Amino acid sequence: MNISGMPRRWTASQWQTAGITALIGICVLSLVPALQKPAQAQQPALLQTTASGPTFKRQAIDMKAFNWRTVTVEKGQTLSDVFDDLGIAHSVMRRVLDTDAAKQAFKRIKDGDVIEFDINGYDQLRAMRFDNSDLEQAHLAIEADAIRETLTQRKIEKRLMVASGEITQSLYADAQRAGLSGKIVTQVADVFKYDIDFSDDLRAGDQFQVVYEQTFLEGKPYRQGQIQAATFINRGEKFSAFRYNAGGREEYFDGSGRPLKKVLLRIPIEFARLSSTFGMRKHPVLGRMRAHKGVDYAARTGTPIMAAGDGRVELAGWKNGYGKTVIINHGQGRSTLYGHMSSLGKIKRGQFVSQGSIIGRVGSTGLATGPHLHYEFRIGGKQVNPLKVTMPKPEPLRGAALVKFRNATAPAVAMMEQSATTQLR
User: Fold this and answer.
1) Is the pTM of this model over 0.85?
2) Would you identify the CATH topology of the domain 63-153?
3) Where in the chain is the domain with CATH 3.10.450.350?
4) Strand, helix or coil for residue 213
5) Cα separations (Å) of 186 from 171, 226, 330?
6) What is the pLDDT of residue 72?
7) pLDDT at 22
8) Is 224 helix (H, G, I), strand (E, B) or coil?
9) What string of DSSP letters covers 276-340?
């Protein structure tokens, strides 16, 4: 009896047909993945693509998505050695070296240089990253048909810093111990050169305090810049200097707003030793007592000699026992003489020179036993002691100009006061 809803028993022919159908289905299913694999293998390894109709559109490569491998160049290594160690073909290296960034960065590769690479699973270079300069980093995205260059500026920040110290050995040694660079030490000597002879006046126990610009590159100290303020206590007397833009020109002023720049430099040579003073002495060459009408500064041959002040050149040539000599007329009856030079600067008689310009170099021409500068200061044609002559002081800032000066220098003053208070605790 046939009961409604119950399945009927299959015949032998129906079982045979079902088996053949199932076998065909299994074969078809096994072929589909095999047919798909060649299509996937053809996708480029370096490029991300998105379908857009029948064509493909290339997407920009995100440099952050790469897996960077850092290489530090060792002593004696070349760029070719680095590429060989990484298994990168020289043909790729030649493509890299054709880029503007690489041409600049790899003119001279040296030990300690850092280069970053991203290499995919097929030993193919996808990207490079390296310093193009101290302040710039280059990114190269290596593609099948091109190399894309991107230059990134490093983050730079400027801050005011303060350093202080006490003289125990020399200005240079003690300032460096306080964290100041040689450039800052030279600035300190230049700022106070009108009032302090750092070769002869310096004493143990003298103190200095300096506020200066410090540049930070990506959070790390990079370079020290200009002195913004400084104090120096020499033999118990305090000298101050503040950098300020007055009338479009950066100058240094003392605490009262008076320019530090004097009519004449006290010493026209840096870091030289006072070897002979003004007055009577036994002449080192002639061997007899004779008036020494200037002061001598011993220094190495070739040391630069500066014009003590603005003026016009009266003599640039040989002058008897003075040897190679320069005389400058500064006006108002004042003149200066510089003797025993090894060579003269690019100056000639009648030429106007500015204070601080190089007029010659230390030597021992004329009546001299060794390299030194003979320096004379004359008023009305008569030699006077340059270490004791009093120069007229420049006019200080007044009124609104003085108020602006005090407001502009207030942050530096506060920094020095706070630093001094901290040291006393």
Assistant:
1) no
2) Nuclear Transport Factor 2; Chain: A, (3.10.450)
3) 63-153, 156-262+393-425
4) strand
5) 10, 11, 26
6) 92
7) 55
8) strand
9) E-SEEEE-TTT-SEEEE-SEEEE--TT-EEE-SSSEEEEEEEE-GGG-EEEEEEEETTEEEEEEE
Give pLDDT tens digits for 131-180: 888 788 889 888 888 888 888 888 888 999 999 999 998 898 999 999 99
Q: Is 64 helix (H, G, I), strand (E, B) or coil?
A: helix
Q: Out of 7-11, 71-75, 76-80, which region has the weakest mean confidence (pLDDT)?
A: 7-11
When the pLDDT of each residue in the chain is averaged and rounded to a whole number, the result is 81
- The topology under which CATH files domain 156-262+393-425 is Nuclear Transport Factor 2; Chain: A, (3.10.450)
CA 68 to chain centre: 29
Token digits of residue 325: 């000599």
What mean pLDDT is predicted for residues 395-423? 88
Which residue intervals of the chain bear CATH 2.70.70.10? Answer: 273-384
CA 382 remoteness from chain centre: 46
Distance CA 292, CA 277 (A): 8
Which residues neighbour 276 within 8 Å (Cβ) at sequence distance 6 or greater?
292, 295, 296, 372
Q: Which fold has domain 273-384?
A: Glucose Permease (Domain IIA) (2.70.70)
The Cβ of residue 122 has, within 10 Å, a number of other Cβ atoms equal to 8
Residue type, 150: T
